[in-house]
């Protein structure tokens, strides 16, 4: 999550206010200057010339060396007047010439007294100075605008503490030593303890990596300087690297502090010898490595970085003295989910029928961000429905909205599409009903949501830490159940299954390349290997992978087909119920199975 700093805003506002103030003072100054020329105490130069040469009414002139402002005493007047002359030297010559012609004017020349001339000099320079300042301010303002778009290393005290982070108890325990170190670095140094410079947080987006990094800073009471890896990537060569440098310059100034780099994979992915964007990326990464090696552990800067794709990272980042510690931030379990729901519902009006424990059970696999989002959506739905408080229906609607996207009530669906969707979804539901490892059906619908024409929701009651081979195989069968039903019942296939096919292929690939579940290949990880590395396992290793993936998919598809063929009556019944009611519940689904 990104909270673009409030400081940034107020800093910017300050510049705007300053700019406006300057502008006002410039205008006032200009008005004063033009008006001041028109006081009666001043004679225009032409007037002065006339008074000297024609009227001969000038008695005495006081001049200060270097100043073009002179004092004029007229014969018939008590008060002295001021005049401004274009050039002192020419003026003195003119007076001397007049004297030769018998037209004598007393001329007094005083040496320049600094305390008179300097301020007046400054005063005459004032508009220029103000203009320069205004110019600088405008430049700065533009620079700031630019920065808030791209370079945005914000430093702030977060105010977030471990109390705001629900669940993640083990992770917090692991990171508490960092807090203690930031609080009392001396104590650790005296003991000779080495504190890690960099810690990598691994985890899906929305699992609270940013949150926990902020909480560490908040607990220790140190500034939190953050930037996202994608912000380092620039079109202009060298900019990314210079941003890294600036980020660490800033960190050194405010240390002890936390530096947080989100999406570090954007800069830290494996270096290549490429050109253009790639070499720019390399420069940025190299700069990061230089910075990390450059500061000593006693500088009390701790760099936390987050990524969802650890396998993408350049190995150099993981060497000792860099990000040599890794903490996995897992999606929350049922208890964690309940706690997250509690935290995020604290400021919401919940009705008495809401059971957060129940919701936590129904939301296995959800991240903290998704749970926070659900509660927010529920509050919006309750408001739209004019409810006094958020009730269970609002919450369930919110869950659907977040999981399958917005309900598209306005879209008109053709009868043909509806039938296809009905058989497709019925296919998923019927097939999974016969797969022991697969979750029970909770709801089936042919109302489009988001990109999906329909959906089958499953009850996911337990959190799973390990997935067995059988389970993965059956997952693929369930995914292909939609396509199999379309083919067998309607003798046609549609694009509606594209997402299912994509996921099924991914699962099969993971089985072969990641989890060593293929007999032909064995327990070897081929997932993160480069082309040349793969070849060390045999020249045709890629062909074998392909064949293995295809075998898994083929087997699963024929199993899905036979499940459909053997249960055609049930498939028809479920599809018909869907066409009639659009959405059917778990109870209705079970009823069909009992009666058909
Ligand atoms: P990440 O950095 O892993 O993508 P964030 O830290 O930005 O995730 O999480 C986004 C939001 O989700 C947080 O601001 C918070 O509202 C909520 N959230 C995520 N995990 C938790 C948690 N463990 N406890 C409380 N709220 C959480
Ligand atoms: Zn499907």
Compact overview of the structure:
This protein has 596 residues and is of the alpha/beta class. Helices cover 55% and strands 11% of the residues.
Give an overview of the whole structure.
Helix content is 55%, strand content 11%. It is an alpha/beta fold and 596 residues long. The chain folds into five domains: 2-36 and 117-148; 45-112, Signal recognition particle alu RNA binding heterodimer, srp9/1; 153-328, Rossmann fold; 336-403, Helicase, Ruva Protein, domain 3, CATH 1.10.8.60; 415-595, Up-down Bundle (Methane Monooxygenase Hydroxylase, Chain G, domain 1), CATH 1.20.58.760. The protein has a six-stranded mixed beta sheet with strand order 6-8-9-10-7-11, with helices on both faces. It has a five-stranded mixed beta sheet with strand order 1-4-3-2-5. A three-stranded antiparallel beta sheet has the order 13-12-14. Helix 5 runs parallel beside helix 7, helix 14 (368-384) crosses helix 15 (392-404) and helix 16 packs antiparallel against helix 17 (469-490). The model is unreliable at 1-8 and 142-152 (pLDDT under 50). Adenosine-5'-diphosphate binds next to helix 7, helix 12 and helix 14.
**What is the beta-strand fraction?**
5-15%
DSSP helical segment count: 22
Integer average pLDDT:
82
**Small-molecule binders:** adenosine-5'-diphosphate, zinc ion
- In CATH terms, what is the architecture of the largest domain? Up-down Bundle
What is the CATH top level name of the largest domain? Mainly Alpha
Helix content: 55-70%
Main structural class = alpha/beta
CATH superfamily of the largest domain: Peptidase M41
Query: How many β-strands, per DSSP?
Result: 14
Terminus-to-terminus distance: 50 Å
Low-confidence stretches: 1-8, 142-152
Find the CATH topology of the largest domain.
Methane Monooxygenase Hydroxylase, Chain G, domain 1
């Amino acid at each position: 999550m990104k909270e673009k700093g409030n400081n940034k805003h107020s800093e910017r506002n300050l510049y705007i206010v300053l700019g406006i103030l300057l502008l006002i003072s410039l205008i006032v100054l200009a008005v004063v200057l033009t008006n001041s020329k028109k006081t009666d105490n001043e004679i225009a130069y032409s007037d002065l010339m006339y008074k000297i040469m024609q009227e001969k009414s000038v008695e005495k002139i006081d001049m200060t060396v270097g100043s073009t402002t002179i004092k004029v005493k007229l014969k018939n007047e008590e008060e002295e007047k001021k005049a401004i002359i274009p050039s002192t030297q020419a003026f003195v010559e003119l007076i001397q010439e007049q004297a030769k012609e018998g037209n004598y004017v007393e001329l007094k020349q005083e040496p320049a007294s600094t305390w008179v001339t300097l301020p007046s000099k400054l005063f005459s320079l004032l508009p220029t100075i103000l203009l320069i300042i205004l110019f600088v301010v405008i430049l700065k303002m533009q620079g700031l605008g630019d920065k808030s778009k791209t370079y945005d290393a914000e430093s702030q005290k977060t105010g977030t503490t471990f109390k705001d982070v629900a669940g993640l108890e083990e992770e917090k325990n692991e990171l508490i030593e960092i807090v203690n170190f930031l609080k009392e670095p001396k104590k650790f140094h005296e003991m000779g303890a080495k504190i890690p410079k960099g810690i990598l947080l691994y985890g899906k987006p929305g699992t609270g990596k940013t949150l926990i990094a902020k909480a560490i800073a908040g607990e220790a009471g140190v500034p939190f300087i953050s930037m996202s890896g994608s912000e380092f990537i620039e079109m202009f060569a060298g900019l990314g690297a210079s941003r890294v440098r600036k980020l660490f310059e800033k960190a050194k100034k405010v240390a002890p502090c936390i530096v947080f780099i989100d999406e570090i994979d954007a800069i830290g992915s494996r270096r290549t010898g490429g050109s253009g964007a790639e070499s720019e990326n390399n420069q940025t990464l190299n700069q990061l490595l230089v910075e990390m090696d450059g500061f000593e552990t006693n500088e009390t800067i701790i760099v936390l970085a987050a990524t969802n794709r650890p396998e993408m990272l350049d190995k150099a980042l993981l060497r000792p003295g860099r990000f040599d510690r890794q903490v996995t931030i897992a999606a929350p379990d049922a208890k964690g989910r309940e706690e997250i729901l509690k935290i995020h519902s604290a400021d919401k009006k919940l009705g008495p029928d809401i059971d957060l424990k129940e919701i936590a059970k129904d939301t296995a696999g959800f991240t903290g961000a998704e749970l926070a989002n659900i509660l927010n959506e529920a509050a919006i739905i309750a408001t739209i429905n004019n409810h006094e408080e958020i009730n269970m229906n609002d919450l369930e609607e919110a869950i659907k909205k977040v999981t399958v996207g917005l309900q598209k009530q306005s879209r008109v669906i053709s009868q043909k599409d509806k039938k296809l969707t009905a058989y497709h979804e019925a296919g998923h539901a019927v097939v999974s009903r016969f797969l022991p490892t697969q979750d029970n059906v909770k709801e089936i619908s042919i109302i489009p949501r988001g990109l999906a024409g329909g959906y089958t929701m499953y009850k996911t009651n337990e959190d799973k830490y390990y997935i067995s081979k059988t389970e993965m195989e059956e997952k693929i069968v369930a995914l292909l159940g939609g396509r199999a039903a379309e083919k067998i019942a309607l003798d046609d296939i549609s694009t509606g299954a594209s997402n299912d096919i994509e996921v099924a292929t991914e699962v099969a690939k993971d089985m072969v390349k990641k989890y060593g579940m293929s007999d032909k290949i064995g327990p070897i990880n081929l997932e993160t290997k480069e082309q040349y590395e793969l070849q060390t396992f045999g020249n045709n290793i890629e062909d074998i992978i392909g064949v293995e993936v295809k075998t898994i998919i083929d087997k699963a598809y024929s199993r899905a087909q036979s499940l459909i063929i053997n249960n055609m009556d049930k498939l028809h019944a479920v599809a018909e119920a869907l066409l009639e009611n659009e959405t059917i519940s778990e109870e209705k689904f079970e009823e069909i199975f009992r009666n058909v």
